[in-house]
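Page header: ASSEMBLY MODEL / two components / 411 residues total.
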Amino acid sequence: MKATTPNQDFLRGIWRENPVLIQMLGLCPALAVTNSVANSLAMGVATFFVLMGSSLLVSSFKRFVPHEVRISTYILIIATFVTIADMLLEAIVPVVHKALGAFVALIVVNCMILSRQEAFASKRPLGRSLLDAAGTGFGFIIALLMMGGVRELLGNGTLLGVNVLGANYEPWVIMVLPPGGFLTLGFLLLGLSWIEKKKAARAAVREWPDGVGQERKAA
Amino acid sequence: MADLVWILMSAMVVNNFTLALFLGLCPFMGVSARVETALRMGGANIFVLIITSLCAWFLNAFILPYAPYLRLTSFIVVIASLVQIVEMVIKKVSPMLFRQLGIYLPLITTNCAILGLAIFQTNRGYGLLEGLSFAIGAGLGLTLALVLMASIRENTELADVPELAKGMALVLIIAGSLSLAFMGFAGLLSAT
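Prediction written out in full:
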């Protein structure tokens, strides 16, 4: 495995290898609960907590886990933290817990968490694993907030419950319903690949010495 | 009886697991490139869902009243191990069927639709028969969504799609339109 700096471990998950937008992991929660910013935030924070906790335990005990049963062990550890998160949410913010419903429990099968344990926490030192988990967790929260922001704004005309688009805005209800989830993520991906394409084109021009790039562009 | 049919129809079309509840998206995106594989995946899914429903009912009825905080952990462990055992049994008894279900059986275990079914079943307080009809409906619904998606994707292969939209973006937008179409079923059950 390539050596990385702590900085890279942290930053990688946030954007360049964003779990939802680039790796397409953890799609179920990213689509299901992002119909408002508040729900997205709660889901993101709960997942962040589970990811940090699991990485902490998996990385600390990596020497003692037999290779053959590692996946089951990870799942058990993750399930434990999800149970804790579920109970905490129910105790602290019962309204949000009710809105998220079964999807809090379904964090267990969020493949993003398991993939970080298998790919990173089970092989690297504790500190690095926590950095990696924090980066990936923040990336997940950012992706969820992007989805939630777009869907709440278009579907309700509000952001975090505050009316933004004014009283005359006719809510685009479909955006807060299930089809809106698929469509929003689809168009976000379209936008991202458009940005990537622009960036690649600019980089290609820059590789040529002065003058040549302009000619190529004109041609 | 009418209740059971209602549960089955509701899980199959009105609250379709994939298109309305976003459960089981991984296979929906992953193995929906061919109709043939989509059908097999659907079959394996129905099978595992039925086993899961039985497991969840058993745990809920006999074990979990004594230790409610173990719900999630016990669900996932019992389901995963039971599917493994069933896989071994099928391999011994019917190699034909084993080859048809193939690698899909173990893959399905970590599919959120499976755990989702167990949790929904618990939250709604379904009994044995209700749970079974819920599982069959959910399985048929997943298969329906998978096959629809696969047949559309087979057609888009020959279509002239913009370079940018190729890949996941296109699949998601198609899924959005499918989901939109399935919303039309919402009035189906209240009308009768």
